[in-house]
């Protein structure tokens, strides 16, 4: 069975649902495909932390601005999903923390030095060079956010299919033509892949040349320049 829509979204996490809602708002007919349950991946299994970019300031400064923009967007768009939380502590040796503080000031990331006496309640500090700074990160109730986004998509007429796997992105004469699923073909001129760790596999099988450029957050965290 073939279905015609304007856009297909592959992946029913926060990114996929947000993208589907935005495209539907613009008047497009949108189909969202999720192989599991909505939000079954990293969306609801993490702690809902929207990073300020502080963690990436040294090795990946190019994404700090995007992190800050994301915090502003979540605060303004989903105020009812915000969770009150204590500041996040970033700890390191005194020398390393000084490097980060310099970078945080450069990026206007507000931070406060943690009293060493407070550190003693968490770490064994005697005879150790350890210091920390506190930063207020944005924390989201991911299940509340998921509920809001799903309701918004349904209200906007997004066609949502769960338990349906996108097997192949269809390409013809260098142009996207849709997605092949276990139920048939969904024809569309636009396909947006928001499939998390499954994104690269789909792109590679479609012959995309950018798959190798993609990196997960874990890969970014463990990627350091070679001296």
TrEMBL record:
> Which Pfam families does the UniProt entry name for this protein?
DAO
Q: Which domain of life is it from?
A: Bacteria
Which part of the chain is the FAD dependent oxidoreductase domain? 7-208
Name any GO cellular component annotation.
Answer: cytoplasm
This protein is called FAD-binding oxidoreductase
> Top-down, what is the taxonomic lineage of the species of origin?
Bacteria, Bacillati, Actinomycetota, Actinomycetes, Mycobacteriales
